Amino acid sequence: MKSDRNLAGGLPALSSVGRPRVRRRTSDRVYEELAAAIRDLRIEPGASLSETDLAEQLQVSRTPLREAIARLVDGGLVSVLPQVGTRVEPIRLHDVEQARFVRESLELAAFAAACDKPERDVTGLRALLTEQERCQQAHDLDGFFAADEALHRQIFETSGHLGAWQVMQPMKMHLDRFRRLSLPDPQTVRILIDDHTAIVDALESGDAATGHEHISRHARRVLEIAPGLHGRYPGYFAG
After folding, report:
1. pTM recorded for the entire structure
2. Which domain holds residue 79?
3. Which of 1, 6, 77, 220 is the most buried (most CB within 10 A)?
4. Tens digit of each residue's pLDDT (9 = 90 or more) over 79-89
5. Does residue 144 sit in the same domain as residue 222?
6. Per-residue pLDDT tens for 12-25?
7. What is the CA radius of gyration of the chain?
C-alpha cells in the first residue's frame, strides 16, 4: 500500500488542526490527527517523524505536538529514541492479537445486550451495509473502512454500552492498522461485507447464538490472513 507523500517533508499531507468550533486542547486535536494518519497508514510503519515538519503541517507549536507524541508513545504507536529520533512503530502481531481478543470479547457482550432490547431498529445498520457495497464497487477503501467502523460502533450504541466501544479505541489502533493493510484485497472486502450482513440479520431476529458465531468468525479472520500480509509487507511488521 502506498501513501500520498509530502515531497518537502517526506510525510503525507496532514490537516492543520486549526481552531476548533468548541473549546478543546490543541494537544488532543494533534493527537487525533496523528493517530488517524498512523491508523490509516498515511504515515507508514517505520516512518521517521520530524517535529519541525509536523509542527509546520499541523500549524501548532512544539509543546502540544510533544504532548501528543507522548500519548502515541504510551499507546505503543510511536517510539522516541535518544540520538536516533522519533519513528512510527512497526505492527506487532502480538499487539494485534491482544486488541482482537478485547474487541471480540466486548462485541460479543454488546451484541447479547442489543438482542435483549425489545425494540431493535436495524435501519441504520442496513444503510451502512448499502454504503459498504457502494464503496466496494467504487474501490473506495477509506469509505469502506469508515462504514465498517460505523457498523460495529452502532452495535455498541444499540446495546446501550457505547462507552465500551470508546474505551477500547486506543488498543484497537494496533488492530486497525492491520485491518487497513488487508483492504486492497477485493476478496477480503467481499467476505467482510458478507460477515456484516449475517451479523445484522442475526441482530434483527434477536438470535444471539447465531450472532455470536458470526462475530467470533469475523473477529478471528485476522488470524487467517496474518501470514499472507506479513509476507507481502515484511517492512511493516516487527520480527
Report:
1. 0.87
2. 26-88
3. 77
4. 998 878 899 99
5. yes
6. 567 667 655 556 79
7. 19
